[in-house]
Amino acid sequence: MVSGLKNIVIVTTLMIVWVACSQLDSTIAEFKTTQFIMGVDAHGLITSLTDLTSGTNYLSEDSSSYLMSVRVAGQVKFPQSASVEEDILTLHFEDNIAARINVEEKETHLVFELVSLVNGDVVELILWGPYQTTINKIIGETVGVVRGDEYAIGIQSLNIKTLGGYPWNESDRMPAFDIFRQGDLTDMHPDNDGSVLYRVEAGSPTKSGSSLQAYSRNRSEERIISDFDHEKIVAPPYNDGGVTGSKIALFGCQVGEALQNLGAIELAEGLPHPMIDGEWAKTSEHAAAAYLITSFTEKNVEQAIELTKRAGLKYLYHYGKTFESWGHFELFDGEFPNGIEGLRKCVEKAEAQGVKLGTHCLSNFITTNDPYVTPVPDPRLAKVGSSVITEDIDAQTTEITIQSPDFFNQMKNNNLKTVMIGEELIRYGRVSDAAPWKLLDCQRGAFDTKASAHSTGKTISKLLDHGYKVFLTEADLTVEMSETLAELYNKTGLRQISFDGLEGNRSTGLGTYGESLMPYTWYNSLADELKDHLIIDASRTTHFFWHIYTRMNWGEPWYAGFRESQTEYRFNNQAYFKRNYMPGMLGWFKMTPETSLEDMEWLLARSAGYEAGYALVADAESLAQNGNSDKILELIGDWEKLRISDSFSEVQKELMRDNTKEFSIERVGDKEWNWKEIHNEIYTHENKVRQPGEPLYTTLNFNNPGAEQSIDFILTANNSDVSNITFEINNYKKIELPLTIKAGQILKSESNKLTLFDSRWQVIKAYDIDIADFVLNQGDNAIAVDCSFANADKESNLKVEIKSIVADEKVVLSNPNI
């Protein structure tokens, strides 16, 4: 408790209130912003994290929160005392270690920077926090902001070597799982760690609320760590100035101002602050814009641009072979024969039509045909570790004796089995089971390097690789590749990028730091005009990378049907995005010749409900083959306008987040649509074999939640032609369809018309029907379906989908300028 004010020292940007203390644990200094006050006592303990307006102290008393601590010989050491002189707060530790911390008070945040560390050579790392709070409503585990009903508190790393998080792993790889789906909030090594793009870093839940934390590591010495499924891997020294210079911001504010505060911190502290059309990307309505992914070349780029415009989209992402090899990023001659100049002209053509171009990057992956590998391998290729050869070898030797097998016999993630001796790469089959240790069945001069003689004592290094059959990079090579990639963007004007495989940059030995290093170097190397309009995503998040990426768009279409591929994961991501101030994105979806209007509107409704964009993978051939293409492209544009302009009500959005519900829109005016909630049920009428006289029909019990109405239906014949189709509604009204649906064909009713399609939605024939025949009551209805199957195969069936309208509402475009 403060007993009295001793004096006030004012410097340019800092006002520190000194307090005379009657007890050893009393506050000796308070640091303030316009909405936040933080107290520190004579032992370096935090005494308050207080809302300056309400006076509420959000510091948890369940555990101690030190401003900063150090780790020596694997043990965390807390300060024994603290003192303040002008703008420097000094923490004193045992073994005569002293940390001098410069403190700045700013309007929106406090800045703490370690400016010197006496006897710091023995310090392995320094920790900011963890700062324990009582706030637990919304915890942004990656961004480092925790929110209650009214107040938010946050931490920000202000340079790349200050990692948001805690050294849960000595590799500095942050836990990658959804912590809020774990039973134990303290378990940072669950079985599913590494399975998602989520990162538990600067914020984490605790039993009493939440904690905020960051740290920096001394990287002056080589370390042995575990990563990439290797128990032993060398983390080489890295000269970044050490822990001195580690810097964080702390802030507290009203919940509604937290995102704005983060933007203000970026600007005040010189952090990346990418824009979209002059607006900060994190607040731009276009940050979650949907985009088209398709292959295009110099020859057909106009066609791809036109396709993008037909879909009402503004971003076109190149899909295909962009580069001759990964590493030097030389453009693929087969698609861009005129190289950078050819791609630049593609960009200019797209820009003239209001479309921005982007491409895919497998980050620091280096293909085996790249000049970094062949004919002379770059010494900066990442290594698992090294030994020496213990016998001379000539250019033909196929068994190489080595001093130690430690880095060579780890086979769990050994995809290329490649070692480097001088300027030669050598592949080996296995390592001998006992000493003398030998690499057996060696293939000399691998990847067109030159097989050479090597003498005893020469260094032999196991190269680190990836399952994509690529090599990886040390830090200096990561930087060089990043600058090369930025040069491509500067010369061509590309505006969108995805850093896929970003986790490969842990090959630097820097962990999460390495993952951020590539996009950070790339961003800083871009021309200023490009930073005014950028869309950036990646395969991984990190706390510091948050300042660079626009969004994350994860979810792949390759594993199941249009609706089924990684569906749960896609929707679970949205909660992670929201709690970490990230635009919503649903991932990639692939349009095929068989994609239906219903499937597409299922996606578009989810996109609107979650306020989340997506990527549509489509090629000209599939679009030409799909008879619904024109309507699908029109619907994409209409839904996107309504979503981006925030034209749907909150009630409508909530309904559209229900994965089991169907929705459709119909344009009824220039700026007006009918929005329909549709109830559908899907049944299967199977080809049955029963006793003579036993009925073969299938009774469908359909509950119509809407008013009495004529229903629509879709019939699909599977594995057999189907004829003599009958419906009997509620045991009295029998309807016969005098037609045949061939195997794979689809019969669809809409209003007063029946249309027969092939499997790719090309119209075969249309029929007129009387919609009055298909009226269903509100509530329960019994529909008996029967037909004749041409194929006696028991696997034959008729898929029946019945649809009724639950709600029909007008939606008006709220912002016509979108």
Explain the overall architecture.
The protein has 818 residues and is an alpha+beta fold. The protein is 15% helix and 35% strand. The protein has 11 helices and 52 strands. An 8-stranded antiparallel sheet has the order 8-9-10-11-21-15-14-13, with helices on one face. A 7-stranded parallel sheet has the order 37-36-26-25-24-39-38. The longest helix has 18 residues, at 475-492.
Strands of the largest sheet, in order across it? Answer: 8-9-10-11-21-15-14-13
Helix content: 10-25%
The first-to-last residue Cα distance is 56 Å
What integer is the average pLDDT? 93
Total helical elements: 11
In terms of per-residue confidence, which ranges show pLDDT below 50 for 5 or more consecutive residues?
1-25
Find the structural class using helix and strand composition. alpha+beta
